[in-house]
Structure formats: C-alpha cells, structure tokens
C-alpha cells in the first residue's frame, strides 16, 4: 500500500491526492506536520516538506518526494486517466500551468493564508496580520481573472480535456477557500469550473477533512456556491 505523508491543508498533497483519486490508486494518508521537523520525516525528505510517498511493502524503494515528481511518477506508471497528455506542446502547456499555480498562486495566496491563518495560530499562538490577508484577497481577484481568461478559450484550464493543471489549480483554491480567502463575485466562469471540480468523486474525501482548531466557512463543501 502507498503511504502519503501529508496534512489536510497542504495544497501540494491535495494535488497528489486528486491525481491518485482520478487514477484510482489506493493510498493511506499519514498525518505529517512539517513544522515539527520530525527526525524520521527529515530522514525521508531532507527538505522537510510534504508530500512524500513511500510503499509500505515493496522493500527499500526510494521515497517519492515533491508533488510534481510524484504526479509524474504515477502518470508514467498508471495508464488510467492520463493527466499530462496530448502533443508535446499540449503537455508543455499543462506543465506551465501546474508551475503557475504551484508557484504564483501559492506565493500570492495559499502560502500567506496558511501562514497567517494556520501556522501562526497553531504553532506561534499569534493572531493573523490583516495587512497580509488583505493583500492575499487582492491577489485572488487577479488569479480568478486569469482563470476566467483561460476558460474564455478552453473547456479546461490547459486545453480541451481535464489535466493536471486543473488539479493543481483546484487544490490551491480549495485550501484558500477553506481559509476563507476566496470570493467568487464577478468570476462566474471560474466558479462554474470549480463547482465541476468539486463535484468529482476524487474531491469528496478532501472536502470532508478538517484541520484541527481551524474550521472552514459554511459553504466550503457545498456545490451551489
Ligand atoms: N515543491 C514542493 C513544495 C512543497 C511544500 O512547500 N510543502 C509545504 C506544505 S504545503 C511544506 O512542507 N512546508 C514546510 C517547509 O517548507 O519547511 C512540492 O511541490 O511538493
């Protein structure tokens, strides 16, 4: 059985979980809080970051580390529901957008929200700084504008079929949404796309999970936003 070291609000682990769900790969989530810097976890991943995957009964298989490397591993080894497919140019566009959401959306929105609303409360016992929350809310508008723009010309974010780009974006948005950071006002296309993502069976286990102490807004799990 594959074990996935993660915590419920890690957007990179959520991307991996969505891919595993779409491909029908069974796995067991193992709770890891990277801020605790556990020795056994650092032995597995010296970077001390989630997600990490190991196989519990396949001998000394190296751990899989880094969400993109993990997704590429399962894309290469499990044929079902290809998530990086099409021509070389199609695949380049999927990878570009995955990097966009993993890097820019995380830097502008999910990362600051996780630090202000989760880590400060859980680890540092401090209140969030409203300046950073305001900046993140402003950045959400620009990112949702970009999603609207992509969907003006495409059925899915990277092209005509659902891909890892949709999973990466939905994973980041779902964490920001849990932390009260998403306002869909004036973003009908992005909202419709996200409702479609939320309705997928691969999404349901993520929406049902809770992070200790921190509760999501009332409509977090609802499909009629
Ligand atoms: N590039 C990595 C980023 C992973 C990452 O930043 N994980 C966060 C949690 S969501 C983490 O472990 N942060 C703790 C740290 O950086 O020390 C990936 O895609 O897996």
UniProtKB/TrEMBL annotation:
Residues 1-82 form the GST N-terminal domain. Residues 87-217 form the GST C-terminal domain. It comes from the Bacteria. InterPro entries: Glutathione-S-Trfase_C-like, Glutathione_S-Trfase, Glutathione_S-Trfase_N, GST_C. This is Glutathione S-transferase family protein. It comes from Stakelama flava.
């Amino acid at each position: 059985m594959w074990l996935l070291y993660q915590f419920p609000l890690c957007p990179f682990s959520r991307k991996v979980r969505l891919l595993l769900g779409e491909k029908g790969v069974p796995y067991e989530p193992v709770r890891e809080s990277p801020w605790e810097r556990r020795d056994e976890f650092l032995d597995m991943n010296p970077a001390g970051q989630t997600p990490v995957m190991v196989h519990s009964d396949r001998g000394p298989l190296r751990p899989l580390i880094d969400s993109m490397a993990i997704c590429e591993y399962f894309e290469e080894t499990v044929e079902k529901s290809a998530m990086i497919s099409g021509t070389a140019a199609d695949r380049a566009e999927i990878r570009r957008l995955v990097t966009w959401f993993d890097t820019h959306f995380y830097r502008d929105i999910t990362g600051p929200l996780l630090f202000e609303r989760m880590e400060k409360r859980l680890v540092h016992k401090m209140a969030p700084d409203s300046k950073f929350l305001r900046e993140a809310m402003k950045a959400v508008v620009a990112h949702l504008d970009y999603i609207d723009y992509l969907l003006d010309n495409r059925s899915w974010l990277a092209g005509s079929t659902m891909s890892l780009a949709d999973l990466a974006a939905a994973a980041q948005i779902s964490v920001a949404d849990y932390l009260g950071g998403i306002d869909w006002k004036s973003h009908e296309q992005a909202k419709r796309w996200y409702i479609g993502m939320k309705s997928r069976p691969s999404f349901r286990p993520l929406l049902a999970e809770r992070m200790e102490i921190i509760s999501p807004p009332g409509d977090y799990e609802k499909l009629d936003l």
